[in-house]
Amino acid sequence: MELLPQMVFREPDGRRKGLIMLFLSFISLLIWVYIGVVLNASDFFIFFAIGLGFSGVAESLPPDRRRSAGTLRMLAVGTFVVFLGVLASVPGLLLA
């Protein structure tokens, strides 16, 4: 039981990894805007943009902000869990 808090509330991995995740979040956001506006399709990529954004901010924090990084990591995982829940319960909402 002690392993989970150690993994979640560890020191952030560094600015480089955080910037990569933020860049991927930005790309996902651009894809979501293109698909939503131009093609009038689903909101599939917004979950990835939000989750990767939370992870990117968590990894970009200074090393002494372990609790904040852990909270942002839990929000990122929660975003992906909500995505899977919506996908399992109402797949037509995201894959239309």
Tell me about this structure.
The chain has helices at 3-8, 15-38, 44-60, 66-89, 91-95. It is 79% helix and 0% strand. Helix 2 runs antiparallel to helix 3 and helix 3 (44-60) runs antiparallel to helix 4. It has one domain (3-95). With 96 residues, it is mainly alpha-helical.
The radius of gyration is: 15 Å
> Given the C-alpha coordinates, what overall shape results?
flat
Summarize the helix and strand pattern as letters.
Answer: HHHHH
Helix content: over 70%
Mean of all residue-level pLDDT scores: 85
Q: What is the count of distinct domains?
A: 1
Q: Alpha-carbon distance between the termini? A: 40 Å
Largest sheet: none
Name the quaternary structure. Answer: single chain
Structural class: mainly alpha
Question: What is this structure, in a nutshell?
Answer:
The protein is mainly α. It has helices at 3-8, 15-38, 44-60, 66-89, 91-95.
Secondary structure layout:
Elements: H1 3-8, H2 15-38, H3 44-60, H4 66-89, H5 91-95
Helix pairs in contact: 2-3, 3-4
Main features:
flat; mainly alpha; single chain; 96 residues; 5 helices
